[in-house]
Design goal:
The complex is a heterodimer.
Chain A (H helix, E strand, L loop, with lengths): L16 E3 H15 L3 E5 L9 H6 L4 E3 L4 H13 L3 E7 L8 H10 L5 E5 L17 H6 L5 E3 L4 H12 L5 E4 L4 E3 L14 E4 L4 E5 L3 H13 L5 E5 L2 E3 L3 H11 L2 E8 L4 H12 L4 E6 L9 H7 L4 H14 L8
Parallel strand pairs in A: 2-3, 2-4, 4-5, 5-7, 6-7, 10-11, 10-13, 13-14
Antiparallel strand pairs in A: 1-8, 6-12, 9-11
Helix pairs in contact in A: 1-6, 3-4, 7-11, 8-9
Chain B lengths: L6 H22 L5 H17 L14 E4 L5 H11 L39 H15 L7 E6 L6 H12 L5 E7 L2 E2 L2 E2 H4 L5 H7 L3 E6 L3 H13 L5 E6 L22 H14 L8
Parallel strand pairs in B: 1-2, 2-3, 3-7, 6-7
Antiparallel strand pairs in B: 4-5
The chains are: A alpha/beta, B alpha/beta.
């Protein structure tokens, strides 16, 4: 069995839920307590992005930027040059959506340890619609040299990830969600940047999830088990650097890989796993996520269902993938 | 920074910087001529009078900061830095070549003494604002200043005005910006491409202290910087009126030299002109 501790209520009717941004809010305040170099900048979304806890604790280290995302990250670059550890926050659609070039030039090429916090990512933003449902951020950030990309699976992990990027000395992107999602990890669950975790062991297929999609894969694995399918679930909270060792070991064992993300699969997390497998261990792969289209307005759960991003919709897709690949399935 | 130089010594520095720009660009075979030549007097004033730094210890913790916002003019900064002793002057001839620390557009991680990486326009002022904010509010070091040089065409960028609002709001008094007001950009004259006037009024309305100087009069540049440091309740901008290509008559005022280097014959002619010009660039000449 996997040694990763999971919360015991995750498959109950009412699992504990909290948005990942809430974990960030707690983590940032703790990071500020631990290191006075930590400063926070926000583009007029302080409470939405949960920076208000930090602001209340350290008003002198909180900087309001106004609705100016280009300035948000470039002022942060300057603060980093002056020895600070700047956390910047906005909605992911605006940062890194609007200010990608400034991030590229003044943060990654310039190697300044600015933290880009993109909240309200994914279709689960809901009624605000496609303009605000950021789906391309993983791709945008992961192609930048020096950039670390972390997509925490739940609020507990988001808090740990926030503390980790505060001290990694590198440009880092942290992707957060607006809506409450089930908490599957515990205070004792491990989190290290660059590490993937086997949450559930299996033989027939590897289900790799990033962000809140990992919980859906855990549930899908349980549904598949009822059909006699043994699924391994690998949680990949760090999209870059990707934990090649853990992913390849699982792919070698099961001979089939499925990825799931609340983002474009092209160049996103699924893209990263596809690159890895095709170069190092060609393995049948199915990517679940947004298929080259934008989202639209709706209730969060409605949208996840509509776009096939919940366990119930994933299960038949995975089942079909297993059936379709059975004739050339490489036994581990 | 070493001993105080006289105005004529500073003018000689500016002339040396101009000659170095010509030889660098000729050797590189590509790069921008007009902007760096027009900025030579400002850089001579910055590196040999205005700024506090230690060329042998570029990260000296009491230094003033300098952010070049329009990175394409970096040959003038490289020439000034070499003259100031950050590195050997021979290295200037490696500009834009494979393996060089002197990249076509400046990269902080390549060359000690650079505070930022720049090229895409519009982001230098906000980086300088970030440092100025830290000095004023976080580290409380009132005797250190942050200088930045912007192009005028660069002011088309929205990021500049985001930074102008930010610095105005927080009254970043240790922030001092120079605008290279040479009236040209790639597609033509600034007022034809995208008018900037009333430029003074724009900055004033954003909460800045504004001065205008002859950007080729080193005394005026130094005096304006001194005044800017004395203004303690708002950021300062110095609109420096310059002539693109200044010092090389066939380049002056001609926007075609914005992004072009001299060939061998042109470089030879330019150097001859500069050598006979020594000490003759100042107000009214």
């Amino acid at each position: 069995m996997s040694s990763y501790p999971l919360r015991d209520d995750i498959f109950s009717e009412k699992p504990t839920e909290e948005p990942t941004r809430a974990g960030f809010g707690r983590g940032l305040k703790k990071a500020g307590e631990a290191d006075e170099r930590v400063v926070a900048l926000c583009a007029d979304l302080t409470e939405s992005t949960q920076m208000h806890h930090f602001k209340a604790a350290f008003p002198e280290r909180y900087i309001e930027i106004g609705v100016a995302e280009q300035n948000l990250v470039t002022v942060a670059s300057g603060l980093a040059r002056a020895g600070k550890i700047p956390f910047t926050s906005s909605y992911a659609a605006f940062s890194p959506g609007r200010n990608w070039e400034q991030i590229r030039t003044t943060i990654t090429l310039n190697e300044q340890p600015v933290k880009i916090i993109g909240s309200h990512a994914g279709v689960s933003v809901g009624p605000d619609g496609a303009t605000h449902q950021m789906l391309e951020d993983i791709a945008l950030m992961r192609v930048l040299p020096h950039m670390v990309v972390v997509v925490p699976g739940d609020s507990v992990e988001a808090e740990k990830a926030t503390l980790a990027i505060a001290q990694n000395g590198e440009p880092s992107y942290l992707r957060l969600a607006r809506e409450k999602t089930p908490v599957f990890s515990t205070d004792d669950s491990p989190f290290t940047i660059g590490t993937a975790y086997v949450l559930r062991e299996g033989r027939d297929v590897t289900l790799c999830g990033t962000g809140t999609m990992t919980f859906q894969l855990l549930k899908a694995a349980q549904l598949l088990e009822q059909q006699g399918v043994s699924a391994e679930v690998v949680h990949v909270p760090t999209v870059k650097p990707l934990d090649e060792t853990v992913i390849l070991a699982s792919a070698r064992k099961t001979g089939r890989v499925v990825t799931a993300e609340e983002a474009q699969i092209a160049a996103g997390f699924g893209g990263a796993v596809a690159e890895l497998l095709s170069e190092k261990l060609p393995t049948p792969l199915k990517r679940i996520g947004m298929l080259d289209r934008f989202g639209e307005s709706g209730q969060p759960n409605e949208l996840l269902d509509y776009f096939g991003l919940n366990a119930e919709k994933m299960k038949p897709v995975i089942q079909e993938f297993i059936n379709a690949t059975s004739q050339y399935h490489r036994e581990g | 920074m070493g001993q105080q130089l006289t105005v004529s010594q500073l003018e000689a520095k500016a002339n040396t910087i101009r000659q170095d720009i010509i030889t660098m660009l000729e050797a590189a075979g590509s790069g921008h001529s007009a902007g760096p030549l027009g900025l030579s007097d400002i850089f001579a004033a910055l590196y040999f009078d205005i700024m506090n730094y230690d060329a042998k210890n570029p990260d000296w913790e009491k230094r003033d900061y300098f952010f070049l916002s329009n990175g394409h003019t970096v040959p003038v900064q490289y020439a000034a830095m070499a003259e100031a002793g950050f590195f050997e002057k021979a290295e200037l001839q490696t500009l834009r070549k494979l393996g060089s620390r002197l990249q076509g557009h400046p990269e902080r991680t390549k060359l000690p003494g650079l505070e930022n990486t720049s090229g895409p326009l519009g982001s230098g002022l906000s980086q300088a604002s970030g440092v100025a904010y830290a000095l004023q509010y976080l580290d409380r070091e009132p005797h250190r200043f942050v200088y930045t040089v912007m192009g005028d065409g660069e002011l088309n960028e929205g990021n500049i005005w985001e930074a102008a609002m930010f610095a105005g709001k927080y009254k970043l008094a240790q922030l001092i910006g120079f605008i290279d007001r040479n009236n040209i950009q790639i597609d033509g004259n600034t007022e034809d491409v995208m008018p900037l006037e009333d430029l003074r009024g724009k900055w004033e309305s954003f909460g800045w202290h504004v001065q205008e100087v002859d950007g080729h009069n080193i005394e005026s540049i130094i005096d304006a910087a001194s005044m800017a440091r004395a203004i303690s309740n708002k950021p300062s901008v110095i609109i420096a009126h310059t002539i693109p290509g200044k010092g090389v008559d066939f380049m002056e005022y001609d926007y075609h030299w914005h992004g072009a280097p001299p060939n061998h014959e042109q470089a030879k002619e330019a150097l001859t002109k500069l050598r006979t010009l020594n000490g003759k660039i100042k107000a009214g000449e």
